[in-house]
Specification:
By secondary structure, the chain is mostly helical. Helices cover 54% and strands 2% of the residues. The longest helix has 26 residues.
Length: 166
């Protein structure tokens, strides 16, 4: 399977899982603070939207390494659910209350925009607009892998919070 199709499928499935979880909750549940005083499901969804708004690829160049070289490290970091991270202030949720329908529409739009962006781009190019903290520059494929794995991490967080709501 071509890499564009491969990452598109995983990204699509991951966002669909997020959307399904949000759709299955009431607006009250979306805005309920969990017992650990962490983010609400609505705040998690907003954080996902902030972090998934696109990839920094206005300036790109050829690379002299594997296009997916950083993916194992990305997965190791973000799929270790026993380690907690503090989000950069610029990535923090900005609201305390969310409307379910608005979140669902924004998540669907975000997914669609990413899938459109993936379709015709060379994912093996290195993005030079922004370095990932402590890891350096990523290829488009690595940025999309980060977005996918990051959403998977927060899907896990949502699942844990939803269990408390029952």
């Amino acid at each position: 399977m071509e890499i564009n199709q491969q990452i598109s499928k995983v990204l699509n499935d991951t966002f669909d899982q997020t959307i399904k979880m949000v759709m299955c909750l009431s607006e009250e549940q979306i805005n309920t603070i969990p017992k650990d005083q962490g983010w609400t499901v609505g705040q998690i969804a907003e954080h996902i939207l902030i972090c998934s708004s696109g990839i920094p690829d206005n300036k790109t160049e050829e690379i002299n390494r594997a296009f997916d070289d950083q993916v194992p490290a990305i997965k190791q970091i973000f799929l270790d659910f026993n380690v907690k991270y503090d989000a950069d202030k610029s990535l923090l949720p900005r609201q305390d209350h969310y409307k379910k329908e608005e979140l669902v529409l924004k998540l669907k739009d975000c997914k669609t925009n990413l899938l459109i962006d993936i379709k015709d781009k060379d994912l093996m190019l290195l993005c030079k607009d922004m370095e990932f903290p402590r890891m350096g520059f990523f290829t488009r494929f690595e940025w999309l892998s980060f977005i996918t794995v990051h959403v998977q991490r927060h899907n896990h967080q949502m699942e844990e919070d939803i269990k408390e709501l029952d």
